[in-house]
Amino acid sequence: MIANATLESLKAVIAAQGDGTQVLGDEVMVMPLPVELIDPKAYRVETDRVRGVQNDAMIRVERRALEVRDHTAAVGDRVSIKRDRLDAPVESYEVTDIKELSAGEMLELVLMVRDDETVEGGA
Predict the structure, then answer these.
(1) Is residue 116 over pLDDT 70?
(2) 29, 32, 105, 123: most buried by Cβ count inside 10 Å?
(3) Tens of pLDDT along 46-96?
(4) Are 111 and 99 in contact (CB under 8 A)?
């Protein structure tokens, strides 16, 4: 894995309000975690779309790094990623698919850009 970004925030969606606004659980990240951010090639985007998975970006992260934080990655998790470059903004994504790599030691999280409303904690 070549770390080129940091995972700044990770929260699971724990509920949805009547108007569709999603409710997020507690923050999993105690400190930023280095990850490999991948911009998918057109072929991968199309292949995933055929499977019903939106793919705007992907990250690779060590499974162990998430388990240490008592979290098992799941579809629907909300993540905030910051690319390792000067003045890069923090970008918000939702996990749409998860693949195991390297005999399950690494996880590839497929992400879709999120800009909708969420509510912190409580339902």
Answers:
(1) no
(2) 29
(3) 999 999 999 999 999 999 988 877 788 899 999 999 999 989 999 999 999
(4) no
- 23 by DSSP, 3-state: which? strand
Number of helices followed by number of strands (H, E) in the chain:
2, 9
Q: Are strands 57-62 and 106-113 parallel, antiparallel or unpaired?
A: antiparallel
Residue located via tokens 């911009």? 39
Owner of token pair 């970008």: 91
Alpha-carbon distance of 38 to 40, in angstroms, equals 6
Rounded to whole angstroms, the Cα distance separating 74 from 120 reads 18
Hey, how many other C-beta atoms are within 10 angstroms of the C-beta on 15? 13
**Half-sphere exposure (Cβ direction) of 65: Cα atoms closer than 13 Å:** 15
